[in-house]
Design goal:
The complex is a heterodimer of chains A (about 625) and B (about 160). Chain A has about 625 residues and is α/β, with parallel strands linked by helices. Chain A contains 24 helices and 19 strands. In chain A, helix 8 crosses helix 11 and helix 19 packs antiparallel against helix 20. Chain B folds into two domains: about 60 residues; about 80 residues, Glutaredoxin, CATH 3.40.30. The two termini of chain B are about 15 Å apart. Classes of the chains: A alpha/beta (about 625), B alpha+beta (about 160). At the A-B interface, helix 2, strand 11, strand 15 and helix 18 of A face helix 3, helix 5 and helix 6 of B.
């Protein structure tokens, strides 16, 4: 940063001056190559693309004004790696290493578009040049993700140039802590980690709580399977989280902050550490921030790989160097949390919304969404949907629009069966409720919940009893074991579900599951246990016929539970190639060459090898 | 975590000295970061080293073992040269994840949480790798392999010797 001539800011004026200087130094004609380094694109090799682009930039000579930069997740992970060329916003998808030279030659130097790398709209068959013309992006409204795809998350100067830390400056210019809290209350922002508690009210309680020091914590322990929103914010725009925490700390009266990041996210840790170090160097974190009397320091802790640590009291126990076991919340953490002191904990996405609320006003934020759920929500749209990725939508949008318009419908032309929201504590929502609006209360009414934002789409071949078993198995493994209902209740539920999917279900099993579910809800210690039965209860509510088919008929309608369906060879489709016969480990298949083969059901062990190996899809599940 | 260290070397406390020396006013709050650094340095958490941590910091050995055994991340036995991590997230589940776990079990002959006898692989399952768009997905060391089916597993594992 010193090469940019930035040094520690000692006043608001200096920060503003630097922003102007940064903007003026940018030539309007200069080209910029944005290589997505979100987790999806990185897994598909985007760092290597970035390196090749950098080499091309270097080789182009000094008279060409161009820079290559890593940016945060664009969200359209299905189509990664993504490369966007600015100005113009030319959106290239599924870019591979050999494409780099062509993009550089044609688009960067020549100003021409490489048609074959553009996204093709499946509805019109037309190639689309810009991101905002792609159906996946059209319906979205990006606030928390607005910096993603635009900023280099490793450069604080990029964030500052785009208006970063203006909200902090506004708060210190000065607003009183009361005014800041009122603004957040006015916005109607509710916790994005799952609980949906009003953020402003939490801040006020913490401010009013007696005791010092007070702590501010960012929960980055994103453990819900099928969710990666917070990861993309931490890795794509870490400064927005830091700025949010600074504002919260100012409002609450705290000088000490912690960011607790999931152990599985090493890049998040690296980017946050780098961002905090840069902010410290510039006097945006640390003592007497921007020359004011406000001081705030941030430490980053890595989690230990326990799902339960996403629960606030368990997270605090973990920060204290103890096993991450929750405690009963008779006393709220805003009064007695980390080290027994008043502690305000918010989730990554919640913090990332704060700078926008301060800059544009609580009223603006409250203008988006529904009566009780304001603003936008980021979802990770995954599972059997065409366009998997990260999406940010205004609250109140219907599930149908998310799945059909943004998600592009179900993969491989199959039928939709259910969408699972809310992580392991959530539930499955069936087709008849697809027009339900995304809203905290609405989702709860349907037996699911908002949760942190995982949205897993399931098609007709997904067995709902198995889904319920999957979540119960997950939670039983992750249960910390402190309270009996969760530790023993989940084990019993899993035992019953195992029995059902093995074809040994008994009449009365559904009622037993419901009873255990009620017991957990009423008596478990923390939210993990209280909501643990949701996946089971919601699938019983909407897919009771599938449970009945398993228990009463010994049949799995989705044909997923081994033993509850058979394999047969379709004589019309089979041409007698002999591949199944050769691969069958049980010698259960017979047939002459070029004559349709037959499976001997008595010998068949239902291993599925023939079904996997058949090149003509002639092996059927019946 | 492929830098497995033999038993004698574990008793060398030089790395531990550096770790403890780098933390001012070491206390109970620092336990998780200390164990993370010990594991990074030694490849796992050797018991003699944990006892030394207890002696030097005053943190009760019982508490250290409580924490070391509570979190999935820590292991008290040496790991294999390569770590195979199979995602058991929801998106992987609905796209055939359970079949992948089976295929890895068969290929390596070990259960999740175990290490092969030749110390080549440690097999773990994780709650979610956060790369759901690649489902079903595994990681071998730091490499991702996505959109898998059971048939691809063997050739992937063969690349790691």
């Amino acid at each position: 940063m010193t090469e940019l001539g930035i040094k520690r800011f000692s006043s608001l004026v200096e920060l503003e001056g630097m922003r102007e200087k940064l903007l003026n130094s940018r030539s309007a004609s200069a080209k910029s190559i944005h290589v997505c380094t979100g987790p999806g694109c990185v897994a598909k090799g985007s760092f290597k693309l970035y390196e090749i682009f950098c080499a091309a930039v270097e080789g182009a000579g000094s008279d060409v004004q161009v820079q290559a930069k890593c940016v945060g997740c664009h969200g359209f992970c299905e189509r990664g790696p993504i490369v966007v060329i600015e100005p113009g916003g030319i959106f290239y998808q599924r870019v591979e290493e050999p494409d780099v030279a062509e993009i550089f030659r044609e688009t960067v130097l020549g100003g021409r578009v490489v048609e074959r790398l553009l996204y093709e709209d499946p509805n019109t068959g037309k190639k689309v040049e810009k991101a905002n013309e792609i159906p996946f992006y059209k319906v979205q409204e990006r606030i928390a993700l607005s910096g993603n795809g635009l900023l280099d998350p490793t450069e604080i100067s990029d964030y500052i140039a785009e208006g970063g830390y203006t909200a902090l400056a506004k708060v210190l210019s000065p607003m009183t802590p009361e005014e800041v809290i009122s603004e957040v209350e006015l916005s109607g922002l509710r916790g994005r980690g799952g609980g949906g508690f009003p953020t402003g009210r939490k801040w006020r309680s913490c401010r009013q709580a007696e005791g010092s020091p007070k702590y501010v914590i960012c929960n980055g322990d994103e453990g819900d399977p099928g969710a990666f929103m917070d990861r993309c914010i931490m890795e794509g725009n870490p400064h927005s989280v830091i700025e949010g925490m600074l504002i919260g700390a100012y409002a609450i009266g705290s000088e000490h902050g912690y960011i607790y990041v999931r152990n599985e996210y090493p890049l998040s840790v690296e980017r946050l550490k780098n961002a905090v170090a840069q902010a410290k160097e510039l006097g945006l974190v640390g003592e007497t921030i921007l020359g004011s009397s406000f001081s705030f320091d941030i430490r980053i802790n890595r989690g230990g790989g326990a799902f339960v640590c996403g629960e606030s009291t368990a997270l605090m126990a973990s920060l204290e160097g103890r096993p991450g076991e929750p405690r009963a919340k008779y006393v709220h953490t805003v009064e007695s949390g980390f080290r027994g002191k008043p502690t305000n904990l918010n989730n990554v996405e919640t913090w990332a919304n704060i700078p926008h609320i301060i800059n544009r006003g609580g009223k603006w934020f409250a203008g988006i969404g529904t009566e009780k759920s304001k603003g936008t929500k980021v979802f990770s749209l995954v599972g059997n949907v065409v366009n998997t990725g990260l999406v940010e939508v205004p609250m109140g949008i219907t599930m149908r629009r998310i799945i059909d318009e943004i998600g592009g419908g179900i993969r491989d032309g199959k039928r939709f069966k259910a969408v699972q929201t809310g992580g392991p504590s959530g539930g499955c929502i069936p087709a008849e409720h697809l027009d339900a609006r995304v809203d905290f209360e609405e989702l709860t009414k349907l037996g699911s919940m908002m949760g942190s934002g995982g949205m897993i789409v399931m098609d007709e071949e997904t067995c709902m009893v198995r889904v319920a078993k999957y979540f119960t198995d997950f939670l039983q493994k992750e249960s910390c074991g402190k309270c009996t209902p969760c530790r023993e209740g989940l084990a019993q539920m899993l035992y019953i579900l195992d029995r059902i999917t093995d074809g040994e279900g008994q009449v009365g099993d559904i009622e037993r599951l419901e009873e255990l579910g009620g017991l957990l809800e009423g008596t478990a210690l923390c939210a993990l246990g209280k909501t643990a039965a949701n996946p089971v209860i919601s699938t019983i509510r909407y897919f009771r016929d599938e449970y009945d088919a398993h228990i009463l008929d010994g049949r799995c309608p989705a044909k997923e539970c081994r033993g509850l369906f058979r394999y047969e060879i379709d004589p019309e489709a089979c041409n007698g190639c002999g591949i199944c016969l050769k691969n069958c480990p049980a010698d259960a298949i017979t047939g002459e060459k070029k004559v349709p083969h037959v499976i001997n059901q008595e010998k068949c062990t239902l291993c599925g090898t023939c079904w996997e190996k058949c090149p003509f899809t002639a092996v059927l599940k019946v | 975590m492929s830098n497995t260290v033999g038993t004698e070397a574990c008793l060398d406390t030089k790395a531990l000295d550096e770790i403890l020396g780098s933390i001012p006013d070491v206390g109970g709050d620092d336990l998780v970061p200390i164990l993370q650094q010990v594991q990074k340095a030694y490849g796992y958490l050797p018991k003699p080293i944990l006892m030394t941590v207890s002696e030097r910091t005053g943190i009760a050995a019982a508490r250290i073992f409580g924490v070391a055994t509570f979190y999935e991340q820590f292991h008290l036995e040496p790991h294999g040269r390569h770590t195979v991590r199979c995602c058991r997230g929801t998106a992987c589940h609905v796209r055939g994840g359970p079949g992948i776990i089976e295929a890895i079990k068969q290929a390596l002959g070990v259960e999740p949480g175990e290490t092969t006898e030749d110390m080549r692989f440690t097999f773990e399952t994780v709650a979610c790798l956060g790369t759901c768009f690649l489902a079903p997905v595994i990681m071998v060391n730091n490499d991702y392999f996505g959109n898998l089916n059971a048939r691809k597993i063997k050739s992937i594992l063969e690349r790691y010797t």
